[in-house]
């Protein structure tokens, strides 16, 4: 496991071996970071009938059935249907199962991945059992978008936050995956905050698109024409991308601006920060599940972005 996953496992292990073992866990990870090894290690430990030194023994029946994907006491809840949500009916079915005794006499484990695919009614249906799970029943939630979970659910979970990898680790990974330097650079901007796009290619495409829009608006193109290209994206994802890229451009000031093609005279920093503040405000609203009219809100922020560049040109 990577150093980030190892650090998270240390925290989990303390909880598992402590006096009050949490029965509802939530692995929170940056998008693009594969937490499957951590998830497997936790679920494997919980299903093992005789763990040794805080790890699954890998030889008991529990371990055998888990490894072969046939464990009867493991319930996997994942998104269904076109809307990609975890449905309330699945939750009700799971609750019934969870009340029965496990087949091996060991623990019962319910995994909910991604947890941000729970809607309000499925979350509400879950609250009681997560608050007081039957003896021997454990929950493992996983999400890259913890802001989308209802606070009533979060307060019942032991949150384990996986740190984003170091830039060096990311660079090595990107090289390994044959991504060019500019992709690597843009991708790194988007690593430090959870995003709803899991696929790395999509994330790079979005980053490039955001950068392109910032260039074109600077050169005088009408933002409304350009915003249309984000129509199919989730507003929160688009806002996070704009926020990350603007933040990077502004905090690194000249070097980042020049590197990404914003040459010539530069606007004063306070003006740039105003645009960032506006985007961040919308991002927070969106994280709090307040719906944001993206074309309108982003249009205003981008109009301000275009305006500050005309000021330095004239
Ligand atoms: Zn075992």
The major beta sheet can be summarized as:
5 strands, parallel
Query: What is the radius of gyration?
Result: 23 Å
- How far apart the termini lie comes to 54 Å
Share in β-strands: 5-15%
Annotation, overall tally of beta strands: 5
How do the SSEs run, as a string of H and E? HEHHEHEHEHEHHHHHHHH
Secondary-structure-based class equals alpha/beta
Number of helices: 14
> Could you name the CATH topology of the largest domain?
Rossmann fold
Number of domains: 2
Bound molecules: zinc ion
- Morphology call: elongated
Largest sheet: spatial strand order: 2-3-4-1-5
Mean pLDDT: 85
CATH class of the largest domain: Alpha Beta
Name the poorly predicted regions: 192-198
Share of helical residues? 40-55%
**CATH homologous superfamily identity of the largest domain:** P-loop containing nucleotide triphosphate hydrolases
| CATH architecture tag of the largest domain | 3-Layer(aba) Sandwich
């Amino acid at each position: 496991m990577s150093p980030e996953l190892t650090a998270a496992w240390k925290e989990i292990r303390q909880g598992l071996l402590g006096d009050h073992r949490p029965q509802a866990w939530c692995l929170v990870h940056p998008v693009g970071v594969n937490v499957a090894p951590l998830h497997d290690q936790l679920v494997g430990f919980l299903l093992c009938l005789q763990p040794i030194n805080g790890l699954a023994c890998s030889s008991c029946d529990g371990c055998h059935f888990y490894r072969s994907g046939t464990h009867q006491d493991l319930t996997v809840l994942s998104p269904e249907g076109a809307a990609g949500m975890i449905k309330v009916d699945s939750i009700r079915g799971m609750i019934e199962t969870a009340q029965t005794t496990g087949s091996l006499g060991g623990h019962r484990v319910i995994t909910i991945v991604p947890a941000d695919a729970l809607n309000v009614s499925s979350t509400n249906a879950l609250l009681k059992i997560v608050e007081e799970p039957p003896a021997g029943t454990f929950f493992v939630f996983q999400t890259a978008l913890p802001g989308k979970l209802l606070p009533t659910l979060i307060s019942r979970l032991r949150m384990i936050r996986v740190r984003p990898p170091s830039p060096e680790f990311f660079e090595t990974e990107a090289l390994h995956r044959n991504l060019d330097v500019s992709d690597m650079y843009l991708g790194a901007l988007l690593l430090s905050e959870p995003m709803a796009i899991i696929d790395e290619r999509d994330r790079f495409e979005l980053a490039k698109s955001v950068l392109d829009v910032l260039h074109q608006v600077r050169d005088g193109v009408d933002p409304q024409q350009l915003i249309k290209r984000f129509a199919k994206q989730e507003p929160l994802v688009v806002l996070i991308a704009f926020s990350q890229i603007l933040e990077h451009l502004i905090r690194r000031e000249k070097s980042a601006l020049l590197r990404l093609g914003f040459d010539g005279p530069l606007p004063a920093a306070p003006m740039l920060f105003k645009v960032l503040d506006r985007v961040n405000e919308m991002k927070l609203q969106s994280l709090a599940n307040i719906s944001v009219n993206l074309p309108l809100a982003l249009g205003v922020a981008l109009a301000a972005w275009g305006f500050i560049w005309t000021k330095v040109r004239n």
